[in-house]
Amino acid sequence: MNLPSVSSSHKTNEVAVSVRGLGLTYTTAIDRRPTLKARVKSLGRGGKQTRVIRALDEVNLDVEYGQVLGIIGTNGAGKSSLMRVISGILPPTQGRIEVYGSVSTLLALGVGFNPSMSGRDNVYLGGLAAGMSRDEIDNHFEEIAEFSELGEAIDAPMRTYSSGMYARLAFSVSATVRPDILIVDEALSTGDARFKEKSLNRIKELRSDDRALILVSHAMATLEDVCNDVAWLHKGKLVQRGDPKTVITAYREFLQVGKSAAIDEDV
Amino acid sequence: MSTPTQVYEPFRAGLPPLRKYWKSLWSRRTFISEYSRSELREQHFDSVFGQLWLVLNPLLLSAVYFLLIVIISGSSDSTRYAHLTATLFLFYLVANSLTGGVKSITAGQRLILNTAFPRIMLPVSAVVIAIFKFLPTLAVFLAIRTVLGLPFAWEMFWAIPVLLITMLLALGLAVTISCINVYFRDIASFLPYMTRTLLYLSPILYEASDLKPELRTLELFNPLFPILDSWSRALVHGQAPLTSHLLISLGWAVGIFLIGTYFFLSREREFAVRL
User: Fold this and answer.
1) What residues have CB less than 8 Å from B160, skipping those under 6 apart?
2) How is chain A split into domains, by residue range?
3) Facing residues of A61 across strands?
4) A87 in reach of chain B (CB within 8 A)
5) pLDDT values of chain B reduced to their tens digit, one per residue, 275 residues
6) What is the DSSP string of B105-142?
7) Which of A87, B111, B232, B250 is most exposed, with minimal Cβ within 10 Å?
8) Minimal CA–CA distance to A251: which of A228, A233, A226, A229?
């Protein structure tokens, strides 16, 4: 949990994350916004209030140090759920997850939870919630602000941010704090072309033998470029895992889209 | 192979390991102070006019209610005014904890969905914010008290344990209501009616001793009743509070805190899928 990697260097091919027989089911409210009023109104009818969602089913997955693992799959395949289980946000329903090393408990999107506060406050609050100390954030803050290229906007309330600015700040946070196991969930897919390029380069810099990277993305070309391993999830199950080219080709055939510009372009 | 740093397994119903939870919460205490500070700054309470408003708002409120008392009862005196301000300010500590607490979990959605941390930090921060808003009003009350010429007495220090009990009660209420709001999002819209009812049921616009004997059962159902009466006795009248009132309010506060926290802790692991 302790974010910054505390020198306990991990050797290549040592297991970083081990996922065994992972199942995740949850009941969720059918109403997007469950209310007492709706509950009382439906009392006599005995209708179901919740439905059960099977987000992950018997997933076995090992991530080793030195690996850059790309996770692909259609919307709702369980990619984000898997990331949340690995970072300890969602408890699994079945199975066991072992994490060897510090994992970024702050997924990028957690930044900016309070839109009326400034970018700066949000970075601090997100970091503190993830268990970092003030000093650690102080040390990283300059780098985060600089990388995000937000300039003076860093002190403006986040509700004034465009979605691109938002994504830039989010990515900067996850790419600046350097845990042993870094999870980047979709944060690559926004921002202008130049920033995409820049973040792609940063990801490449972060590849190292004593770090495990897990990238969730729909940008096939990027994954093919950066990853040395790709896992394909579909409806909560692990379909295929292995060499990026092979898995991505299989996934493309499955989608029947071929190597079209639409999925490549989106870095 | 080395031992894993973290192991995640299915959890059984009930409480998470409390010692670990507490450790994790304690290591994040800076979050709570930082969060309250940012929130207050965002509401401009760090500026002169913001501070002034913080004090002016309850003062205007107490002036309005005092007007009401004078009109309804036909007469009034300075003790009555002191009682009104003292109890009203303390009441607002609890009311602000409730209004801040109710949405603390649902508003923290992004953070909850993307970060692992003890969720109880959010309602706790809401209560800390309410306490920061309360402290200046306490100073204002002491000034008012001096202006009104109420005598000082050592018994006034009984207000300290009463305040601590109130904070515990406010914390328990905020934790409970923040959790309920995850399951019933319209609780937030009922809240103003609930606090308003609580205001009228509490000895604020009247003194506990003015209450008709047949209405005295009211105080059995209102945790704020013994608290506000003890507060007024200590701070306004300079008397020691009734022991029974102190014990009853402590019982309420501890009870609500324990039940609310149990409810919250046993549920919080599923908040992420409920938001």
Assistant:
1) none
2) 15-104+179-265
3) A19
4) yes
5) 577 888 888 877 778 889 999 999 999 999 999 999 888 888 877 778 887 888 888 889 889 999 988 888 877 788 899 999 999 999 999 999 999 999 999 988 888 888 889 999 999 999 999 999 999 899 999 999 999 999 999 999 999 999 999 999 999 999 999 999 998 988 999 999 999 999 999 999 988 888 888 888 878 889 999 999 999 999 999 999 999 999 999 999 999 999 999 999 999 988 888 77
6) HHHTHHHHHHB-S-TTHHHHHHHHHHHHHHHHHHHHHH
7) B250
8) A233
Residues of B within 8 A of A97 (CB-CB) are 6-9
Q: Do A85 and B8 touch (CB under 8 A)?
A: yes
Partners of A112 on chain B (C-beta within 8 Å) are 110
Contact B11 A91 (CB under 8 A): yes
The 3-state secondary structure of A25-64 reads: EEEEECCCCCCHHHHHHCCCCCCCCEEEEEEEEEEEEEEE
Chain A, window 23-42: residues with a beta carbon less than 8 angstroms from a chain B beta carbon: 26-29, 33-37, 39
Q: What DSSP element (H or E) covers B272?
A: helix B271-274
Q: Which residues of A touch B35 (CB under 8 A)?
A: 125, 128
Long-range Cβ contact pairs of B224-230 (< 8 A, separation 24 or more): B224/B91, B224/B94, B224/B169, B224/B198, B225/B201, B226/B252, B227/B90, B227/B162, B227/B165, B227/B166, B227/B169, B227/B252, B228/B87, B228/B90, B228/B91, B228/B202, B228/B203, B228/B204, B229/B203, B230/B158, B230/B162
* Chain B residues touching A28 at Cβ < 8 A: 273-274
Q: Where are the domains of chain B?
A: 18-274
Kindly determine whether residue B186 and residue A93, on different chains, have CB atoms separated by under 8 Å: no
- Over the range B121-132, which residues count as b (16 or more CB within 10 Å of their CB) and which as e? bbbbbbbbbbbb
For chains A and B, what is the number of CB pairs under 8 angstroms? 141
Query: Is the alpha carbon torsion for A218, A220, A224, A228 positive or negative?
Result: positive
Looking at 1.10.10.60, 3.40.50.880, 3.30.70.60, 3.40.50.300, the CATH number of the domain A15-104+179-265 comes to 3.40.50.300
Stretch (H or E) spanning B32: helix B29-42
Indicate the pTM of the whole model.
Answer: 0.88
Chain B positions touching A3 (Cβ under 8 A) are none
Cβ separation A100–B2 shorter than 8 A: yes
What gap in Å lies between CA A69 and CA A205, rounded to an integer?
Answer: 15
